[in-house]
Amino acid sequence: MNNQICIENLKRSYSRKIVLKNINLTFKEGTISTIIAPNGEGKTTLLSVIADFVYPDQGQVRYEGICEKRNTVLLLSGDRNLYVKNTVQENLKFFAVLSGMTKQQTLEGLESCRKLFPIYDKIQYKVIEELSFGQKRLVSIMSAVVMDAKCIMIDEASEGLDIANIEVLKSILQTIKKERIIIMASQDYSFITDLSDQLHFLKDGRIVKSCERLTPEKFIALYKNLYMDGVDG
Predict the structure, then answer these.
(1) Which of 21, 95, 160, 187 could form an S-S bond across to 133 if both were Cys, CB 3.0 to 4.6 Å?
(2) pLDDT attached to residue 67
(3) Mean pLDDT confidence for 146-169
(4) Would you call 219 exposed, middle or buried from its count of C-beta atoms within 10 A (0-12, 13-18, 19+)?
């Protein structure tokens, strides 16, 4: 069986406002998919439903193959996934234990982080609250790697990263996607067009357009057409 996540007829509302309407999507192993929309359109809500943090009003999320709920990680923006009074290494070990990994598996996960993240050796003994916003973002992604998550969802993946660390993150995601499902929510068109195998545009609670890779120029044109109708420039 292929490793994939299937979303069927998903609906979610808050009070009387419908945020997600009849969402149908499939995310497959070995791909990076990006949910695109302006702020407030439901990107984070959709990721939260997939991660089982939020229950849908109707519809379902099916995990097929070895991609199960317990192997799914949602990384929110900033340091909301981290324990800020602990060191980087303490955080990573904690998440490994939380996911049921043995001591040997944890050590192997830490070694994977060392190989993938050039910054690891420099910050492993630093307390999270001492790190920059961008460094915290990378540590959040390290936590998913050390846990060997089969589906990694990242809200605003490139947020707070400088150019050098954006390039590092691109390389890391391209490497780890081979055995994983990567789902991002982002508005950074340069980052999106460099990485995404699948793009899904969310508007008024619905997926109004899905497509494969786009050039930056085509992405901008489509974004303007969908979300900035009548706005010059």
Answers:
(1) 160
(2) 55
(3) 90
(4) buried
Distance CA 233, CA 223 (A): 12
Q: Which residues pair with 62 in a beta bridge?
A: 6
Residue-level pLDDT at 66: 59
Asked if the model's pLDDT at residue 233 lies above 70, the reply is no
| Beta partners for residue 6, in sequence order | 26, 62
Contacting residues for 61 by C-beta, under 8 A, at least 6 apart: 5, 6, 7, 8, 10, 49, 50, 52
Structural domains of the chain sorted by starting position, each given as residue range(s) with its CATH number in brackets: 1-68+150-159+169-233 (3.40.50.300), 78-149 (no CATH)
| Residues in CB range of 93: below 8 A, 6 or more apart | 106, 110
